């Protein structure tokens, strides 16, 4: 434990803090008796600084300060994988449905680091906050019960439905300067608004950390963004990140941490900084971070970190500025001409704005305040105001506008802007409206111009915490059971994937050659599919249904190489699997950008896929593929993408000598009997090659547990009974598996 005086000195010296309000940081709201050990962080930083013999940037200090072995870890940006020890893990209900079964199968009795589950993705935005929340609790009762009981059993904190969006809860309760936090959501970097390194990962990565295993991350490069001047008028933090995204494009930040600095930083609120870091995911950045400054004064405001924040996924309202715009319209007798919905980030935000009158202003202008959840941003919107095929436009302050993402309608054009501009456009009812130059006509017929909004950065009367929505895991969970029905359509216990057979991959059939952008939304759609995230076989029915087939320019229509008939991608993959035909996907640039959802890797593996060959990958998706025993490979010459046709077959050679930095050979076999040979690159290290050989990272973990099994020799107890999981029907696995609950220290 670090005394306050040393903590202040260290923050000022090692992190470059100009002003410290950190006493409250020492006490975690969810775990009030645990403290932050900055002394170890400082020790590691000093070791690395001396080794590298150069100054370290802010982000480097945090990352290298969490090295598992700072004295011996090789450090080379963009090439070497770092072994890190994150402080905390956060999962949301959609990804936790798969992450928790993976953790359960590890055999650990408790998580090794503080971890939480956040229920925010499964609530569909329909009628309004309370009604939507009640409906979600009813529809998703089985999933919520599983996550709550699994959390209680394995020491994971559980934020109930309605508590808020994962990123906002992290910002309010767990982010702090110097933290290294991983979350199973691509927008976890939101926590960079409070000076933390917060990184989005797949569920298998989260399981490793929860199991106490060092987490691997390719040593990130650093991109510095110097901010000058100050925000004023109608400009907002959203404009900053949109400008950066325009410069770097969707993959310009890949493999790098974006570090903001300069005098312009001081004009941005803490939640504004979080907004910028959150959307850093849209440029492929590993994460983004701001230096600690006086705008993070929330740290001294309450017991932990309590922020008046913009919801991170849904209608991103920095409530005061949007309400200020709405109030001007009401003063002139106007209401919104367009549908206007507001989603708030956490339970304390609606409680506070109800008390302060902002919520009523937004309702009076015609807005609908939805539940504290992701809602429209992730496609949880059963939209009925637009007919199928009808072109239309929506303007949001969300963080992502992939085709069909918000309403599952490909004809919808989605534009991203700031919350106050969204509010102004909803009032004007036209995209042509420019609040800086254009006038509105009041109810009295007089023209008026909206003034640039202004609002308090913090509520004058502090925050109203609202309802207590946090479930603390019990100290003694020995009597806790986790129920999983074998007949469930939402939950399914995982079976291990098959191991590599020791041979090259011969005559792989091409399932689909993807044309253009292929995000994780194209590979594994969200929206109505979210309820199947805990059931691998059911969720696999959405595999690549949004990807465009280069052969016919259509989505979800591929040729079956055996029958020569065109059909849905999942059906074709299932046909190949049933007939023992292994397959490969061919992709374009930045394949798998977007969400951290590991289902986009689990599904192709489950349905018989062996490799994904592309021009380039998004970071999280590439790692997810490796974790599940697939081969993410890239063309040594990107133009070789054009040599492959959907009717070809591929043979991938060199797997017996699979080694880091050594390309694999690919033979393209055309139907006319001719062949071409190309080279495929990869980024596997030795540990990741072991995952491939074992069939998955999870399989490799189990291989390392074999000594524990021998200690239970002669014992005939089903694995799930040993782990405290109760099947409410016949056992899902015919072969009992044995595990020693005492093994975890050997892997730490």
Automatic annotation (TrEMBL):
Which superkingdom heads the taxonomic lineage of this protein's source? Eukaryota
Q: Which residues form the Aconitase/3-isopropylmalate dehydratase large subunit alpha/beta/alpha domain?
A: 60-303, 319-429
Q: Which UniProt keywords apply?
A: 4Fe-4S, Iron, Iron-sulfur, Metal-binding
Question: Listed GO cellular component terms?
Answer: cytosol; mitochondrion
Q: Where is the composition biased (Polar residues)?
A: 468-483
GO biological-process terms attached to the record? tricarboxylic acid cycle
Domain annotation Aconitase A/isopropylmalate dehydratase small subunit swivel: ranges: 509-637
Pfam families for the chain = Aconitase (PF00330), Aconitase_C (PF00694)
User: Known CDD domains for this protein?
Assistant: AcnA_Mitochon_Swivel
**GO molecular function terms attached to this record:** 4 iron, 4 sulfur cluster binding; aconitate hydratase activity; metal ion binding
Where are the membrane-spanning stretches? none
Region feature (Disordered): 450-483, 728-748
InterPro entries according to UniProt = Acnase/IPM_dHydase_lsu_aba_1/3 (IPR015931), Acoase/IPM_deHydtase_lsu_aba (IPR001030), Aconitase/3IPM_dehydase_swvl (IPR015928), Aconitase/IPM_isomerase (IPR050926), Aconitase_4Fe-4S_dom (IPR036008), AconitaseA/IPMdHydase_ssu_swvl (IPR000573)
Ranges of Basic and acidic residues composition bias in the record: 450-463
Classification via PANTHER family: ACONITATE HYDRATASE B, ACONITATE HYDRATASE, MITOCHONDRIAL
Q: What is this protein called?
A: Aconitate hydratase, mitochondrial
- What organism does the record attribute this protein to? Cricetulus griseus
